[in-house]
Amino acid sequence: MADSSGGPESIGSDALSKQNIHDGLSEVLAALKIIHDPTSSNSSRQEASFRLDDAKRAPQAPAQGFEIASNTNNDDALRHFGLSMVEYYIKYVWDGRSDAEIVLRDYVVQLAREIRPQDPPYIRNKVAQLWTELAKRSWADQWMNMDELLVKISSMSITHQLLVLTILETLVEQVSNREDPAAGVRGGDLGMACTEIFAPESVLKEVQSSPEEKLSQLRYGTEGWLHRLCLFLNQSLVNNSLGDSQVHGVIIKTLTTIRATISWINIKAISAVQVPTTLIQTLANGDTTMRTAAVEAMIILYSRGKSFDDADFDHIVNPMYNAHNVALLHDAYRWAVVDAHHIDEEKYEFLKKLAEMISHLGHLLTLNPLRIRMKDKPDPADIASLYPLFIAVTSNPSMSVSIHCLELWAHFVRHNKPWSMIEAEHYNSLLEICRQRLVRYEVLPEGFQDDTWLFLQEDFDTITERHTFVGNYRKYCVEVVNQMIPRYPLAVTTHLLDEAKTLIGNLNQIGSDFKGTCDRRFCFQATANYFRSAGILKILHACNPRRCSPYTR
């Protein structure tokens, strides 16, 4: 059991004796025993619950909670309740006095230092929550050395590293979201403090308003937590080959903390630390959980693309277009493809998020095309390999995957770019995809065996949701076709006539095979060909002189 003599005997009171704390502690333990005893009556449990509620509000509650939580001989459920007593006092009883803050801080720091590998995750998470609750109320005001404590505690063991990562993730999420009442009251101060400890010192000096302006004393070291997070991730990826579950946990927690950070931190800090290079290594080499966490972080990062200046674009976007990283994206996509008849739900969710991230990268191509590194520059963009990736995603049988890059193509065909000729090489494939997807899936017969149809049934629970989504998808198809026809009328018409010729041959073959019976296979094949022919007719209908003007006048 932890020795209580090292800490204050009460919160803000020297009059409270150790005997009173001990007596109150005995009452708390007795009440907890009654609640967890399966033979206790309902009235006994109710009375014990009232006593515990009163104990949480008592002045000695933090001391008693600390005694219960720090005694590793106690059951984990009892220790968790002890942590809850301290948390309740911080959130609802503590009035902000500095003498009480020092005591509470000592309790929280000691609990964090004494966390053990064998402690269940809910104990570690509760300690992290205690730290966060106290930080939201006193950090950057009374508590000035928190960053130093976090750095030193994280170096104690991999278990402590997980704890610190949980603290950082929870803190930045609650401060940046501004939905937590305690964080909202001090939102400005906490936001500045988070920026100071996460960004590298060189970036802070670069963006500060005046060269004479001095940084506060909150940060510890010059690198900042964003740099440390990337360092943690790189080291953990090397060690992950050993199959240690704690190393895997550090990787996941580091990725989720990076994700929470890059949604608000200054773009200059992301550029300086080279976050994308770290993330794409995880995206290409991790398991499904790791890859999903990495791609979620990349989605947040590249959705901020409109705020990138030229230097940010060079450091954050251009590296993703080089040959090596484009090849990694191809590999990640091929790895993630799932079978419509045996859907791996976890991998399928990753596939949809990967498609969304790839579409963000595609949009950035047109956002600042003059900054794209072409062949005459170092580490040039591999545009020729990037467009086949866009086509591959668009042609995925799952519309929920395909729609991200289909919308991207609708954006592409409206803009001229330095590499428009490379893009045009894929228009036949794009047109074929649009033709195939101009199917009225809502009127397909029950039991129709088509991969796209199976994915739609997996993605949407109601017919209304499915019809709404398919209608939006079809609008993108029509938009792509309508944009392509006036630009390349001869090529589009020639392609469609060739497809129609092939389809008519298939229909003739089906007719010659018909023996007077209409079995299931025959009906499905005939239905599929009917809808494919309908797609061709829809596109041919768009090819009229008005739509082709002014290019064919």
Task: Report a brief summary of the structure.
Among the domains are: 1-114, no CATH class; 138-208 and 215-273, no CATH class. 70% of the residues lie in helices and 0% in strands. The chain contains 28 helices and no strands.
Question: What report would you give on this structure?
Answer:
- This protein is mostly helical and 553 residues long.
- Among the domains are: 1-114, no CATH class; 138-208 and 215-273, no CATH class.
- 70% of the residues lie in helices and 0% in strands.
- The chain has 28 helices and no strands.
- It has helices spanning 18-36, 42-57, 61-70, 76-93, 98-113, 121-138, 146-154, 158-177, 181-185, 187-198, 201-207, 225-239, 245-262, 267-273, 275-285, 288-302, 310-317, 323-336, 345-367, 383-394, 399-412, 420-424, 427-437, 451-459, 463-487, 489-513, 520-542, 545-548.
- α20 (383-394) crosses α21 (399-412), α23 (427-437) packs across α27 (520-542) and α26 (489-513) runs antiparallel to α27.
- The longest helix is centred in the last third of the chain and has 25 residues, at 463-487.
- The chain is elongated and about 90 Å long.
- The N and C termini lie far apart (91 Å).
Helices and strands in order:
Layout: H1 18-36, H2 42-57, H3 61-70, H4 76-93, H5 98-113, H6 121-138, H7 146-154, H8 158-177, H9 181-185, H10 187-198, H11 201-207, H12 225-239, H13 245-262, H14 267-273, H15 275-285, H16 288-302, H17 310-317, H18 323-336, H19 345-367, H20 383-394, H21 399-412, H22 420-424, H23 427-437, H24 451-459, H25 463-487, H26 489-513, H27 520-542, H28 545-548
Helix pairs in contact: 1-2, 1-3, 3-4, 4-6, 5-6, 6-8, 7-8, 8-13, 12-13, 13-16, 14-17, 15-16, 15-18, 16-19, 18-19, 18-20, 19-21, 20-21, 21-25, 23-25, 23-27, 25-26, 26-27
